[in-house]
Design goal:
- With 321 residues, the protein is an alpha/beta fold.
- The protein has 13 helices and 9 strands.
- The chain has a 9-stranded mixed β-sheet, with helices on both faces.
């Protein structure tokens, strides 16, 4: 591994594995309850970073069993690797988990440019190359599902199986809408408010509380403070760039036939963000797709029912081994 691409602290990964698994084992016995702040502190402490050949610094976690097949977990818009805390104890005994902070998010670098779905996916490919991982299962949630989809389209030989959680195959702005933040209100969410944000962003502002209102309902102790504070560190210009370049009026459909990996589409029937045409486009566009809908769950379905969602993912990924 060259020093240009070597993840910092990678030589210590085997030393890190034991305490990580001890934490995850302790959390697993109560994975059906809200994750506590103390547990999240220990979770966050597992994070390291890599300086990629494209010059970006990508924060990530490399945890779980070293003998398991690699499984990449990609979070959603304004979130971080911490999103996956409820699922990690349920997956860590079976997989080597590579959990990403996308560029612009979490502890990763936040450049002014560039934030297309291809930029996000390329960062992940560079990280996997640095880790000498040739093939992995790829799981993405929300924006992360779009990145996961893109990874599978561009690098089909590197994608064993694909799981898209709360995803969409249609742009957030309807056909004929102006392709800009101003005036766009996809799925009842006023993204136009992003155009009015200015730095420094107040984590207690009405916008931030509204953005996480559904997640706050699920776990108020965690998401009412920690996630909003982290989300507020994303520069307003970066938040707008991500929405403009990866969410609003983006053509998600034309490349779907390039996906060769068996694909699982997971949706919550109460998800207000991804429904209707977005569902239909994915089902029609991905040749080897199967669908699982959870009737009582919403957008953050693995926060609501982690054991049920983990069980479906594990069963799907185990096929064909």
């Amino acid at each position: 591994m060259s020093t240009a691409t070597a993840p910092r602290g990678l030589h210590r990964s085997l030393c890190r594995e034991l305490p990580a698994l001890v934490f995850m084992s302790a959390l697993a016995v109560r994975a059906d309850t809200a994750v506590t702040p103390g547990e999240l502190d220990r979770f966050d402490a597992q994070k390291t970073s890599a300086v990629l050949p494209d010059g970006e610094t990508l924060a990530y976690m490399d945890v779980g069993t070293r003998d398991g097949s690699p499984l990449v977990l990609i979070h959603g818009y304004t979130d971080s690797a911490r999103d996956w805390a409820p699922l990690v104890p349920l997956l860590a005994g079976k997989f080597r988990l590579i959990i990403i902070d996308l560029r612009g998010h979490g502890a990763s670098s936040k450049p002014q440019c560039c934030y297309t779905r291809f930029d996000f996916a390329y960062d992940i490919k560079l990280l996997l190359d640095a880790l000498h991982i040739k093939t992995a299962d790829i799981v993405g949630h929300s924006l992360g599902s779009i990145v996961a989809q893109t990874f599978a389209e561009v690098w089909p030989a590197s994608t064993r199986r694909l799981v898209l959680v709360s995803s969409t195959g249609a742009p957030l702005a309807a056909s004929g809408s102006r392709c800009a933040l101003t005036g766009v209100q996809p799925s009842g969410l006023d993204l136009a408010a992003l155009a009015q944000l200015k730095d420094p962003i107040d984590p207690d502002s009405a916008f931030m509380r509204d953005w996480w209102k559904e997640s706050i309902r699920i776990n108020p102790a965690f998401l009412s403070s920690r996630e909003r504070r982290d989300g507020a560190t994303i520069p307003a210009s970066v938040g707008r760039a991500i929405a403009d370049q990866s969410l609003i009026c983006v053509d998600f459909q034309s490349m779907l036939p390039r996906i060769q990996a068996p694909t699982l589409l997971l949706w919550g029937a109460r998800d207000p963000f991804a429904a209707g045409p977005g569902h239909d486009a994915l089902v029609a566009g991905i040749a080897r797709a199967q669908v699982k809908r959870f009737a009582s769950l919403g957008h953050d379905l693995f926060w609501e029912e982690p054991q049920a969602v983990a069980g479906v993912i594990i069963t799907f990924l185990a096929k064909g081994e």
